[in-house]
Model the fold of this input.
Amino acid sequence: MRADPRFVDLSKAFWANVRSISQQAGYTKRDSRQVKVHTVAEMAAAMTALGLRVTHITGRDGATELGRRLEEYFAYRAEVLNAVVAPQLMDAPEAEQVFEELRARLDPRCPLPMNKQKGEKARPAFLTGIVNMLVEANCDGLPVDYDPRELTTFTRDDQPLRTLARRVDGCFPRAVNPVAVWEIKEYYYTTTFGSRVADGVYETLLDGLELEEIGEHEGITCEHVLIVDSRYTWWECGRSYLCRIIDMLNMGYLDEVLFGREVVERLPHLVRAWVAGARERGAG
Done:
């Protein structure tokens, strides 16, 4: 899933309103487990509750242009999460089936790491394995860093220009001057939406902010992809964080988000585009 063109390149003030309204009015309907669509009246009520003005959202003649755009965005966010994302999310048995089908079909040589669980829950990291197999199958023999043990660095004249603050989960083709980086958030055996899961979302935001700065000030681009799964963790417990992810996507801090089984269809297309970009960069 990529950003909706209607909401690309909007001002920071627009997203400040999105966050403030979402915080005050709530992200989801508890009774129906659906993501909310905030009306202009509800947005105005949220502003009043926060002790802020409402005239930038609504006035005597009804909703302002900003108010209408906010209402349009909230409708889009709810529709894409309720109708598109939720059905894509898998839990462990479904993910294991996809993992085993790909392993049998692709006969991979890439790493297939185990999860960090103990006892009966100690199994292959299904989503990471799925990602690794699909990247290997579509990388046209180019190198892939499936588990970077170093910080991502961008260079100029063989000198570090920017180094990201944290390690990502994968780099193509390598951690120095990558064409693409990705992060994987799989929580199949998590029983609550705890701080560790929330921190994962904010780590992605940090990476996105750093990559935005590199692009703006140095003209260096790198595809930033987030891959998430676990129906229970993300949909049953963490729908508000799914809203934050859709916000980050449309704010430009992510180039693409892959939800659950969407990775099987979409990731091969992305990897083939990365291959073309790497070859073009090499030729240049």
User: Anything to note?
Assistant: The chain has a mean pLDDT of 94. The two ends are 30 Å apart (CA to CA). DSSP finds nine helices and ten strands in the chain.
